[in-house]
Structure formats: structure tokens, C-alpha cells
Automatic annotation (TrEMBL):
InterPro entries: AAA+_ATPase (IPR003593), ABC_transporter-like_ATP-bd (IPR003439), ABC_transporter-like_CS (IPR017871), ABC_transpr_MalK/UgpC-like (IPR047641), Mo/tungstate-bd_C_term_dom (IPR008995), NA-bd_OB-fold (IPR012340), P-loop_NTPase (IPR027417), Transp-assoc_OB_typ2 (IPR013611). Keywords: ATP-binding, Nucleotide-binding, Translocase, Transport. One of its GO terms (cellular component) is ATP-binding cassette (ABC) transporter complex, substrate-binding subunit-containing. It comes from Lactobacillus corticis. This is Sugar ABC transporter ATP-binding protein.
Length: 361
């Protein structure tokens, strides 16, 4: 069915005038009504991607389809898109109410003034800016401006909503509340949404799926839990997860994995998880802190250098080959700084990466 995949991006490339290739052969699709998060470090190409979807930038090559039709030659105003820009882009001479109403006072979406005002006020209530109706953007905080921009994008009830870090200036509580509002709203109205963030927890909590970029290349396009459980490569394993994953330099030789102070026979691995040939050589063994835990009989012994409380859990920090590593344990642990503990890894949860970052286990 055509509208099953409402947005399709095919082999998209963007080379800027200065020769910088911001996106390299990017392909993905988004189902109608889904909320998809574009995640990745600063400079990976997220805003470039949204600008091409909106029609503000022309692709160097490749295609973009909405509902099965190419939109590459369609003007931005005819793409039925709502866009919340990274820098808000509010009209400084208009009040908050006028800003939010604006899309309903021009072009195809034009309505009577009374009706435009009614719709605007509905979305201003949702984004909690009702009291600011008569202020000018110059008098607002960053977070308030951001909410005005969100309300302005929503009033058009667009087919596709593009949001570029829409919550970056909000305090933690408001951020949580507004992101839940955004999700329930776009689900209720059925708007296909692409939501840019570099906050992985935000992506995991609101995205139907996540597309993780690095250096203009998609690293993984998947549901949230797979970024934890089945990362495609070293970059993904290290980008997603808090506290971050532990990485140990290891060698494979003579049928076993050898770290500086532990050995694991290859036969002890879960054979179903082997993805590539485990040829002799150097690898990185990576394990999430929740999968390396104190135990009576561990893989190695470590001296705990620090214990950090993070809400319901504690992080035991230790040095391994001069690199800090972590074990994530229950709040009630009696282990203290300076203790020697044996640590055991869940072998069905570890990952092995080649030097190039390809996952082989
Ligand atoms: N007009 C331009 N000319 C040349 N290079 C550009 C231009 N705009 C962006 N770039 C470069 O393209 C890359 C991608 O930029 P983009 O703005 O898409 O990143 P981003 O993922 O949105 O980053 P951030 O999280 O910091 O907003 C960056 O390396 C950036 O320096
Ligand atoms: Mg950006």
C-alpha cells in the first residue's frame, strides 16, 4: 500500500556548496502516523535532513516521496508541513497570538479571524503559553519561544510535522510534560512526525522508532530497545546507553577471548549470537554496566574507585587497563569505595566488535 510508508527517502545525498558532504546515500521510510526520532551527535546531518524534507534545501541527488509521490520539485508551502525550527524563527513584530495564528491567516489554510484565533488558543493552551498571548517574542525566554514555535507548527494540523530539537531550552519537568503532550497530540491527530533530538532518552521514550545518524550515514534504523540489545556496530553501542557501555580490549586466539585479566572460551558464547567469523585478532568486548555485576565467581577482580548514586541504582566505578568502567547495581549494595570485587559478565549480553567497529557477536 502506498500510504503505509508515508515518507520515503531514497539514496539521498547532500553536498553543500563548500564541498562538505552532509548526507551520504541516506534511505529510510516512515509509516503514516508514526513518530520517528532522528538522533545523532552535533553535525551528523539532522537539520540538513529536515530542511530537505521541508523543501528549504535541494538534495544533490536521490528522492523524497510523500504518500508515494516525489516532492523534490514541490515548493515548501505546498508540502503540507509544519516545521519547528531549531532556532524558533518567530516573527518579532507580532504578538505570541499573532505568531501562532499566522499560518491560518495566509494561503491555503486561511480561515476567518475568529476561527483562526480559536484554533490558535487551543494549541496555546496545550503548550502552556496562554498568558503570553499579547507579548512579543523578544520579551520571552528561550523555552517560551520554543513553545510558541510548537503551537504555530501545530495549528495547521499538518500532514507531516518536522521538529528540530523542539524541547532543548525547557527545564527537565516541562520538557517531560511537553514531550508527552506532543506525542499524545500527534497520535490523536495522526500527524506523521519526524522529531530531531540528540537526547537518547528522549528518543527512546517518545519514538515509535529511532534513526541514528553519524557523519551523514544511518547507523541504525530500529525500535528503541534494539539500540540497547542489538546495536549494529560499535558507534551505536557507545552512543546509546546511560551509563555508557564498558569497552575492554581483547584478543581472540586459540579458541578463546583473552582480556588483560580474564579469559572466555569461545565455546561459552551463545552460538546463535555469532554474526561474523571470530577469526584470531584484536577486538573490543563491550558490555553494558547492568550486565557486568559483582558475583562470587567473576571473570576478573576489580578495585572499586568510586560509588555513585543515580536515583534507584548505584554505579560502581573501576579501572580496567587504565580505562574507567562501570557496573550498575541495586541501590541497596553494601559495596564501598576501595573494595575489591569479582565481576561477572553475562555472556549472552556482551558484544564483540572488530577494530573497524563491525559487530561480530
Ligand atoms: N550551509 C552549509 N554549508 C556547508 N556546510 C554546512 C552547511 N550547513 C551545515 N553544514 C555542515 O553539514 C553538517 C551537518 O549539519 P547539520 O546542521 O545538518 O547538523 P545537525 O545534525 O543538525 O547538528 P546539530 O545537532 O548541531 O544541530 C555539519 O558538519 C555542518 O557543519
Ligand atoms: Mg541541527
Amino acid at each position: 500500500m502506498i500510504d503505509e510508508q508515508f515518507v520515503q527517502v531514497k539514496n539521498l545525498r547532500k553536498v553543500y556548496d563548500n564541498g562538505h558532504e552532509a548526507l551520504k546515500d541516506v534511505s529510510f521510510s516512515v509509516k503514516k502516523g508514526d513518530l520517528v526520532c532522528l538522533l545523532g551527535p552535533s553535525g551528523c546531518g539532522k537539520t540538513t535532513m529536515l530542511n530537505m524534507l521541508a523543501g528549504l534545501l535541494d538534495p544533490t541527488s536521490g528522492d523524497i516521496l510523500f504518500n508515494g509521490k516525489s516532492v523534490v520539485k514541490v515548493a515548501p508551502k505546498d508540502r503540507q508541513i509544519g516545521y519547528v525550527f531549531q532556532n524558533y524563527a518567530l516573527y518579532p513584530h507580532m504578538t505570541v497570538l499573532q505568531n501562532v495564528m499566522f499560518p491560518l491567516t495566509v494561503g491555503k489554510n486561511k480561515r476567518s479571524k475568529a476561527e483562526a484565533e480559536k484554533v490558535a488558543k487551543k494549541y496555546m493552551e496545550i503548550t502552556q503559553i496562554t498568558e503570553l498571548a499579547n507579548q512579543k517574542p523578544g520579551n520571552l525566554s528561550g523555552g517560551q519561544q520554543q513553545r510558541v514555535a510548537i503551537a504555530r507548527a501545530l495549528v495547521q494540523e499538518p500532514q507531516i510535522l518536522l521538529m528540530d530539537e523542539p524541547l532543548s531550552n525547557l527545564d527537565a519537568r516541562l520538557r517531560l510534560k511537553i514531550r508527552e503532550e506532543i506525542r499524545s497530540l500527534v497520535k490523536r491527530v495522526g500527524i506523521t512526525t519526524l522529531f530531531v533530538t540528540h537526547d537518547q532518552e528522549e528518543a527512546l521514550s517518545i519514538g515509535d522508532k529511532i534513526i541514528l545518524f553519524n557523519n551523514g550515514v544511518i547507523q541504525q534504523d530500529d525500535v528503541g530497545q534494539n539500540f540497547y540489545l542489538e546495536p549494529n556496530n560499535y558507534f551505536v553501542a557507545n552512543f546509546v546507553g546511560n551509563p555508557v557501555i564498558d569497552n575492554f580490549a581483547v584478543k581472540i586466539a586459540d579458541g578463546k577471548i583473552s582480556g588483560s585479566d580474564f579469559e572466555i572460551p569461545l565455546a561459552a558464547l551463545d552460538q546463535d549470537r555469532i554474526k561474523g567469523e571470530l577469526t584470531p585478532g584484536e577486538y573490543t568486548l563491550s558490555v553494558r554496566p547492568e550486565n557486568i555485576l559483582p558475583s562470587e565467581q567473576g571473570h576478573f577482580t576489580a578495585k572499586i574507585s568510586d560509588v555513585e548514586l543515580i536515583g534507584r541504582e548505584r554505579i560502581l566505578k573501576f579501572d580496567h587497563d587504565g580505562i574507567q568502567a562501570r557496573s550498575l547495581v541495586n541501590l541497596e549494595t553494601t559495596i564501598q569505595r576501595g573494595d575489591q570485587v569479582q565481576l561477572s559478565m553475562r555472556l549472552d549480553r556482551i558484544f564483540l566488535f572488530t577494530k573497524e567497529g563491525t559487530r561480530v557477536y
